[in-house]
Amino acid sequence: MRHRVVADLSGLPICGNRRSSPSWWGTLAFMLIEGTGFALAIGVYLYLAGLAPVWPPAVPPDLAAGSGVTLVLLASLMPNLLLGRWAEAKDLRRVRLGLLVMLGFGILPLVLRAYEFQAFHVGWDDSAYGSIVWFLLGLHTTHLLSDLIETAVLAALMFTRHADNPRRYGDVKDEVTYWNFVVATWLPVYACLYWGPRL
Amino acid sequence: MIPDQRDMGLDDAALQAALRRVWSSRGGLLGALASVDHKTVGRRYIVTAFAFLLLGGVLAMLMRWQLAQPEARLMGPDRYNQVFTMHGTNMMFLFAVPVMEAMGGYLVPLMVGTRNIAFPRLNAFSYWVYLFGGLLLWGAFLLDMGPDVGWFAYVPLSGPQYAAGKRADIWAQMITFTEVSALAVAVEIVVTVFKQRAPGMSLDRMPLFVWAMLVTAFIIIVAMPAIVTASTALILDRLVGTHFFNPAEGGDVLLWQHLFWFFGHPEVYIIFVPAVGMVSAIIGTFCRRPVFGYLAMVLALVGIALLSFGLWVHHMFTTGLPRLGESFFTASSMAIAVPSGLQIFCWLATLWGAQPRMAVPMLYVLAFFFTFVLGGMTGVMVASVPLDTQLHDSYFVVAHFHYVLIGGAVFPLLGAIHYWFPKVTGRMMREVTGRWACGMIFLGFNLAFFPMHILGLWGMPRRVYTYQPELPWAGLNLFASVSSVLLAGGFLLFFWNAWRSARHGAPAGDDPWGGPTLEWATSSPPPPWNFTRIPVVESVSPLWDAREALPVAEGLRLDRRELLITSLMDATPEARDSSPQDSIWPLLAAIATSVMLIWSIFTPWAVVWGSIPVAITLIGWFWPRGTPEDES
Predict the structure, then answer these.
(1) Are B240 and A6 in contact (CB < 8 Å)?
(2) Phi/psi zone of residue B393: left (φ > 0), alpha (ψ -120 to 50 degrees), beta?
(3) Which among A29, B103, B289, B386 has the fewest CB atoms less than 10 Å away?
(4) B6 lies in a domain?
């Protein structure tokens, strides 16, 4: 078929805003997948709780470690927000700083998480309650871990010759969005695991 | 190559030469393994899925041989359990879902007028993971380790107490492979449709097949996490002693059924909705008019998707759930017949007075109408609790779901293969052979499966490896088995036709059927860059309305793989983004992932140590190389 040229695209930018980036939409799609996973896992918790004559079958969990994780995650939203702004402004020095700070905020909850597993006084193989508690904590820990590795790789990348590139700042903004998601998924899990048994 | 060279002012030959330099894969084995062209990956996916169809068909014939007479001795009960489990698992997870997504992966970028799928490396990764998952399942079967717990692997039968050994773990981990690959393709399709449509292709100008694939991708995204959760919990119960499904420690066996069917029912629509899109594409082209009721068709697709999540309990009517719940799920199960029926009426309205061209794709559509409507009717029957209580786990159900899945999905798929074969290979499939195959498949299918309704009504349970001569089932079973030979013969003829036509078929040209959508605007097979100039869309049938010359856009770069990003609703151009180059890393990442997943059947530490190579390969995959594609 013959062609009839009706439009000239040469004036378009080669990197649009976030909404124009396939990777931003891909991040959203993966958040939908993982968010559904969290919703289902919480559904399993509530389903098992609904069946049990006594819930939880052990003493309610100690609040300290889990609340500590929650506070750290909430506190991390502030530097995360700043990191997003610095990436928007393409301020390489501050983006490097922000990524290093976020690396710290990635490690701290993992340290506290180690104590969290003990705060429930139940093993994964003691009962269905233990199984779903460890499952939920494990699911979220996997997200913390994979995000930590992602942040570390991105931080390393920002100290190389590939750093000063709008595409990299876009990657940082995707990372900022994803961290918000990791925090957001923790809040219902925290409410369910720690406050559900106290209702 | 000149930096920032553009495609303006070049003649077609010079333009194509420049595009070939940046878009072609390198030759040789390494080049083939590293290819991220959605057409290469899509072709591999489709051929692999049909190979699994062939293998699953062999198992089906073995079962029919065994059941042809009472107390047959071809297989013992243990082998038979493996064979029917493998048949169902293979057909659902290794054939039906992957082949539908593969058709989308191949066709959607062409139909929306872009140069490659979004996240092409993820696409290549998903194929390798799928292939390795299939090899795991079949390798285990050949080693007498094939799963034997049914394709839905109910606990406690599949739990640690009743399923010793690794057979059930093979099943559960095969699920992980296929889910990872399916979810990856779903994300690619969503982003391709959202952001890479040709300028002017607003949502209401999208081909119905693209709508169908978009809806399917969303069903996959929301449904598949349920089976991932379920199979992970099953593996944990079996490997590290959790108690999700152990009632003695507060677990629950019905939890498995809820999780499985929350995925399993939408799964039917993951297979059926793309088929609906294929039917719409074929009917439009062969009637030479747009499908009647575009908006109604789209709303019906979305309606089916939403309702498909409210039906899962109808697989569990005999488990003693509360009556109110059963009534709700009866109502919703019947309700989904409404959007499905709406589509049938829209197609009939399109056919009305159209004098459709009766080529093979259209014959398969007619076979679909007849068979799927029958399957839908028996679906409405088993949606009612009293009847389902009688027919549950009987051959009536076997007949019902084969009518729905083969009639509703495989017939349209075979029609679609005939329809798009010239686009993929550049050659036509032989018409006469195609007619014979279609006739044999249609007749063989109905003769083999219709008697199973009656066998079910006469009380024959599914999944029995044999039956006694005193029971009144021998005659119809023999009839079904003999008829299945006709069905298998039809399939063999189809395969032979495809194989032979790919080599010796008549050259097809760009648009052999006079189709209205963009895939017909490029050569057959399409070049690695799909479109020499990006088409501009002004209607829902751009090729019919273009008359002599296709409106196109220019201004893209020729020194890197560049494609066009457009807005979500109206597809107005937003940016020129790059598309990644070929890479061997997706294959390496898939190998690392496969090692970790298979290893973890044997020890939980595999997840710890196995994830290190996965992380390394992913870093290799994403680390920028300073290519023009990385510029921004």
Answers:
(1) no
(2) left
(3) B386
(4) no
